[in-house]
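#structure-requests
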Amino acid sequence: IDSDKRARECLENRSRELQCLLSTSTSERDVACDERDNLAKSNANLLAKSRKLSNERDIALREKEMTRLKLDKIAASFEADYETVRAKTETLLREKNDLQGKITFLEASKASVENNADRILQRDNAIAGQHDRLKTSFKMQTMKLAELQDEVNQLVKRLAQLKEENFQLSRENRSLKDNICSQASEVQYLDEPSSKKRAVFGFRK
């Protein structure tokens, strides 16, 4: 009877120990399940964030490429305009030099005509018999002088216009150069690493 009692007590003690172990295992299993669920949620959040960042990066890269293409097109247009203005400037400079040469020639012709007029007047005073012929010749020389003077005045006006056009073209040329430098700076900024851009705007990766 004592042995049966001891055996029963031993079994009861063993049963209580097994129940404690089962309770402990169940609690550990529940904790492990909770941790697993939390990890799964965390992984899902990280995956969603990763996909979002990947999409944002792809969008940024596409926008950067589109901006670079636009800037290349603008730079090409400015370059073409610059070449056109430069060609016009060279043409105007050549025309200016040609007109300056013509003005010099006409001024020399004017001086020659004035000298001829003076000599005709002297001869007119010395030779009374040739007065009418010299008077007519003087009038003709005077008319020619007036015509030459008108031509000189027109050329001087044209030269002033060319100078004004040359000044305007020089301003446009400087403006085009400034615009090209500005666009090149923007292109260089867009080509910088994204980390430097975020540093400029105060963002962190």
